[in-house]
Amino acid sequence: MVTMLEVTDVTAPSGEACCAPLAKEPLTQADAEQLSITLKALADPARLRLLSIVASSEGQEACVCDLIEPVGLSQPTVSHHLKVLTEAGFLSRSKRGTWAYYRLLPGALTSVAGVLSI
Description:
Layout: H1 29-42, H2 45-56, E1 61-63, H3 68-71, H4 75-87, E2 91-96, E3 99-104, H5 108-116
């Protein structure tokens, strides 16, 4: 048996709306899409470890050669993960001889934390 739900008025007795107004602006479509890309880059345990290692390294910089052993992945796999983190705006890359060095970009983690904090 199907029953009809009664629609009730959603205003308070004083005539005010029952819901509080937004405390801050919600994400725009463009901002949500960009944040999604950023969060996808972080949504991998190996990438989180790599980011953590770089952030904890002296000068917040590390050579790819120093990142392979701690995460237990091959050099091409580590390089792929570092590329994703670089494209997402967390790291910068510089080449020195045959090795690539990755540096944490200032404010990269703060900007994500700011969006997630309420």
